[in-house]
Structures are given as structure tokens and as C-alpha cells.
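Sanity check record (used in CI):
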Amino acid sequence: MNVEKISLSPIINDTTELIKATAAKHNIALKKEFDPRIEFIEADKQNFKQILFNLLSNAVKFSKAEGGTIVITTRKYGEMVQISVSDSGIGIRKEDLDKLFNKFQQIDSGTSRKYGGTGLGLAISKQLVELHGGRIWAESKYGQGSTFIFQLPLTVKKKVGN
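Expected output for histidine kinase:
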């Protein structure tokens, strides 16, 4: 990993720009709520962008066809930053939440046929979050939307990996 001091808001803005056109095509509004107490974090910039891109891509993909809203939120919790991506999409059944971060896992074959994908994005995101010493999870109400949340340390005490 190439850990460096990165400015959080510009990276989130840049990553959001990558999916903005797709979201607009599906009439999905993108909103950002930044915690003003967080200016910088120590993280691998490319890994951070990949985590966020995977979550945003899924939020767009699984949002309802008639549109909706995706909200990206940052919050400071002690020595951690918490980033959440919430959507107003199809939601996930409670019994399926634990399966989400497994490689090649999609909730059911009908979902993968309808929405596409390999089932790797969330598994990769989990691995990258854990490399940073963080954690990732999901909360959802079936039929009402999902929130994917990850926490990372604000500062890295030691370099992990290469």
C-alpha cells in the first residue's frame, strides 16, 4: 500500500464524478454530506477511490428504475472516519446481509442476471478496507434501500503490506 495524507472531500468529489453521468441517466440524485471536522486521512489514495467507486456503482446499479437518491456521508468517530453510501434502491433481505462480502457471491441468480456483475466488488472493497485496519458492513431494509458503511483510521500507526 502507498499510504499518504489525502484530502477526503476532493477524493469523494472526484470519485462521485465518475458515476455522475450514469446516475443522471437513471434519474438518480447524488448528495454529499461532509463532516467539517475531517480534512485529511492517511490512506492509499487508489485503494480508497476503489472502495468508494465500488459502493457508488452498486448504489446506482441497484437503485429503483424510476430514480432515487444516493447520499455519501462522512463522519468522525473518535480516531476513525466513517463513510456511508445510502441508496433508495431495492434493498437486501436481512438473512442475505452476511453473504454480501463473499467473493463471487450475489444474493440470487435472478439478481445477477437482471443487474449484471461478477460478485467481486464488495469482496474487493472488504479486503481493501481491512488492509487499512478498518471494517465494512451493510444495513438494509428490503424494498427500501441500503446503506454501506466503512470505517478507516484517520492516521495509520504503521505501514501495512506493500
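The chain has four helices and seven strands. If this sentence no longer matches the regenerated C-alpha cells, the check is flagged for review.
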